[in-house]
């Protein structure tokens, strides 16, 4: 199970809320695999991918609004995760019949969320702290 401890928080409510939502979906997928209900993974991973893409759009809109100087780099990073999300969907399709696919999915999902999605956002944490506060969420 993943938990968003304080070091993974941006202290910016709408983005932290999105990240928590993604973490909740990841935890439901991990739970399904652990409970031997891996056939539920496909729908959940589809939900995760859609939620991740709409989160990226929200986040990029905010970064544009506050004039974040490394916007292009972060947008490119988000784009580079499309292939990874395709792989997650492939694993999820197989997870119902194939335990190795389920195990790989569980491991990849946690790295995807914590390393690729959330940790890379910490690069702009101090920038939005200065530029975007106070936020009425
Ligand atoms: Fe994010
Ligand atoms: Fe991001």
Count of individual helical segments:
5
* Helix/strand class: mainly alpha
Count of all domains: 1
- The helical percent reads over 70%
Overall description:
With 137 residues, the protein is mainly α. It has one domain (11-131): Four Helix Bundle (Hemerythrin (Met), subunit A). Helices cover 72% and strands 0% of the residues. The chain is built from 5 helices and no strands. Helix 1 runs antiparallel to helix 4 (99-118). The longest helix is centred in the middle third of the chain and has 25 residues, at 41-65. It is elongated. The mean pLDDT is 94. It binds fe (ii) ion (2 copies). One fe (ii) ion is lined by residues 59, 74, 78, 120-121. One fe (ii) ion (FE2) is lined by residues 59, 74, 78, 120-121.
Considering the chains and any ligands shown, give keywords for the structure.
single chain; 137 residues; Four Helix Bundle (Hemerythrin (Met), subunit A); 5 helices; elongated; binds fe (ii) ion
Secondary structure layout plus pairing:
Elements: H1 13-34, H2 41-65, H3 71-95, H4 99-118, H5 125-131
One fe (ii) ion binds at residues 15, 19, 55, 59, 117, 121.
Task: Give a concise summary.
The chain contains five helices and no strands. The chain has helices spanning 13-34, 41-65, 71-95, 99-118, 125-131. Helix 1 (13-34) runs antiparallel to helix 4 and helix 3 (71-95) runs antiparallel to helix 4 (99-118).
């Amino acid at each position: 199970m993943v938990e968003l401890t304080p070091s993974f928080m941006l202290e910016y409510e709408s983005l932290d809320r999105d990240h928590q939502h993604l973490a909740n979906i990841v935890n439901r997928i991990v739970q399904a695999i652990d409970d031997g209900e891996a056939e539920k993974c496909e729908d959940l991973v589809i939900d995760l991918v859609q939620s991740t893409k709409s989160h990226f759009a929200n986040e990029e809109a905010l970064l544009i609004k506050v004039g974040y100087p490394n916007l292009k780099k972060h947008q490119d990073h988000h784009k580079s995760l499309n292939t990874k999300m395709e792989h997650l969907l492939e694993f999820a399709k197989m997870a119902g019949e194939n335990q190795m696919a389920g195990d790989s999915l569980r491991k990849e999902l946690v790295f995807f969320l914590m390393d690729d999605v959330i940790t890379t956002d910490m690069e702009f944490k101090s920038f939005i702290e200065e530029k975007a506060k106070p936020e009425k969420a």
